[in-house]
Amino acid sequence: MPPRRFRSSVAASWLVAMVVVLAACSSSSIPTGPIDTTAAAPQVISVSPAQGTDKVDPAAAVNVTTSSGVLTSVTLTNEDGKAIDGIFTPDKTAWKPNEQLGYGRTYTIKAEGMAVTGPIGPVTSSFTTIKPGNQTKVYLNTTGGESIADGGTYGVGMVVVAHFDEDITDHAAAEKRLVVTADPPVEGAWYWLDNRNAHWRPKEYWKPGTKVSVAANLYGAEVSNGLFGQEDSKTNFVIGPSHVSIADDNTHVVQVFENGNLVRTMPTSMGRGGTEVIAGKTFSFYTMPGVYTVMDKGNPVIMDSSSYGLPINSRLGYKEAIPYATRISTDGIYLHELDTTVWAQGNTDTSHGCLNLNQDNASWFYNWSLPGDVVEVRNTGGPALAVWQNGDWTLPWDQWVAGNS
Fold first, then answer.
1. For this structure, is 252 an active site residue?
2. How many Cβ atoms are within 10 Å of 356's Cβ, its own excluded?
3. Fold observed for domain 134-240
4. Whole-angstrom Cα distance, residue 331 to residue 51?
5. CATH, domain range 243-398
6. Considering 243, 252, 336, 352, which one is annotated as catalytic?
């Protein structure tokens, strides 16, 4: 017999002998069936939120997972028995709802699975979401009060306004939920004008072509004591070409630049200056110096002096339809057509504060301008343009950041 086969036979005999000896030394019998290799790995289904949890943020994550095996069935229902739709991961080891949960509701999760050892579960969990005392909605607007158009184009001085319909006393909590992102990235900050209006702008003018996304992730968030966000809001926009106009009262002209190139020079007549007391109220007739932005426009706009307290029937009162009017301040400063002052445009200030233009220039500027375009007013009298008057860019950056809480 060949040597290899002889040695194998001896080894086999030795192994049999060892088995016999071991059997003789043991008080228990040797198992004859398959060995259970799964005992050390129990099958577990985990559910979040846990059973009995209350005051759950309805925007928080709801998850069902299994440590091994797969999920075969997961249901999530509210107290009325309505099923909430959900989705499994491709490997069926996790599940989550794909619908937003509601405030003040009770939800029940039931989950089952299957492992190599057989069925696992069912596991159930019931939890209750927050019931707010009050809710607030936020609107993402321009400084003109209009909704930011999703996919719209705005000027390099564009300011994002988050307008709340309830007073926000915890500005920091609200700011955590207000997110502005830009491509390319920019440095920017929020500034609260009051408890209902927060403005966001970059440190420097936007670069043309910048893509901007704004999100107000308020749903489920407590933004003041007992006040929760009603819903999420979001919008996207792009920055158009650089439009910067410089109105200089030393020359009485408006120079208009596009991407740094002078494209038009427009003679103007600005605020006549000074103050007067009329009907017991003091009125200022300056075009305030500062950096404005285009807010909105109309053709025509009904301009009524009584809207800011100056009686129509007074010596300086007025109410008339003004064509090609582009607004740049909250208190009614426009670049607009006024043919009756063409004689003064380029040499004399005669207006209540607006920048008068002839028809050709006013209509051109009206059609050319974008919301957020920059208009700098220089060398005029009176106090500087205030932030609440649409002077976001007039405020130095360090003061802007210091006032953003």
1. no
2. 26
3. Immunoglobulin-like (2.60.40)
4. 56
5. 2.40.440.10
6. 336
User: In the numeric block, which tokens belong to residue 382?
Assistant: 């009176």
Identify which of 244, 239, 240 has the alpha carbon closest to the alpha carbon of residue 260. Answer: 244
pLDDT at 96: 96
- Is 243 part of the annotated catalytic residue set? no
As given in the structure block, the two tokens for residue 26 are 């043991």
Output DSSP code: residue 354: S
How far is residue 160's CA from residue 312's CA, in Å, rounded to a whole number? 35
3-state secondary structure of 393: coil
Residue 282: exposure state from Cβ atoms within 10 A (0-12, 13-18, ≥19): exposed
Strand bridging mode 188-192 / 325-327: unpaired
The string of pLDDT tens digits covering residues 158-215 is 999 999 999 999 999 999 999 999 999 999 999 999 999 999 999 999 999 999 999 9
160/172 Cα distance (integer angstroms): 17
Tell me if domain 134-240 and domain 243-398 are identical in fold: no
Q: Which two tokens stand for residue 60?
A: 């928080």
The average pLDDT across 330-359 equals: 97
What b/e sequence results for 245-272 when a residue is b if at least 16 CB atoms lie within 10 Å of its CB, and e otherwise? bbbbbebbbbbbebeeeeeeebbbbbbb
| One-letter amino acid of 33 | G
**Domain limits, the chain:** 45-128, 134-240, 243-398
- Pairwise CA distance, residues 390 & 161, whole Å: 11
- Biggest CA-to-CA distance, the chain: 134
